[in-house]
Structure prediction request, 224 residues.
Amino acid sequence: TIVGVTTGVLSGTRRDKPADVVMRLYGTIIFVIPIFWLGQIFQLVFAVSLGWFPVGLRFSGLPLPNHVTGLYTIDSLLEGRIDKFLVAIDHLILPSLTLGLVLSGFFTKTVRANLLRTMKADYIEAARARGIAEGRIVSRYALKNALVPVVTVLGLQFAILFAGAVLTEKTFAWDGMGLLLLKSIDSADYPMVQGIIVVYALIIVGISVAIDVVNGLIDPRVRF
Prediction:
């Protein structure tokens, strides 16, 4: 989201300039790339060819942290093992980049379109007429209103994120809920499939409620 908003702002504030062309091209390409293909490319380049990161799995090279939460980063810190924490982070980087970059393409295109529309509003022209610096206009007035529609669709993007997480876990051989869902479907374990889908649904509903609250904070028109 941070990458997508940043690139969208850069594109929207530099319309038809080289930076805008580059950001639009980035947003279009990233938006249409299949997430499993991007994950495989990352593994091939950064793990196999360059050796910067491990190939798949959630943890390797050291004994697993003592199980407390099931999250290796947190369990490593609770155990006081910084070396295990760094190993867990090392395994997180490529899957996180895969999921984050795919979503950033959508936010780049959405933020750019909303920012361009907002910059044509009467109150923006009035701010320019008063001599307010363009950077201040964008950061203080235009960006806040341009992000309202983005926050609204953020809940839908979380649903896409969960769907992408299933493929990402499969690509990186992560033993998570997504991989468990695929295994349960293959083995016709329908109670497990239903349970996982219910958990996903509850998470998405909770996120949607949180987004409604945030919308009320940034847009007084929807407060009640």
Remarks:
- The two ends are 27 Å apart (CA to CA).
- Residues 82-118 form the longest helix (37 residues).
- The chain has one domain: 2-222.
- The mean pLDDT is 79.
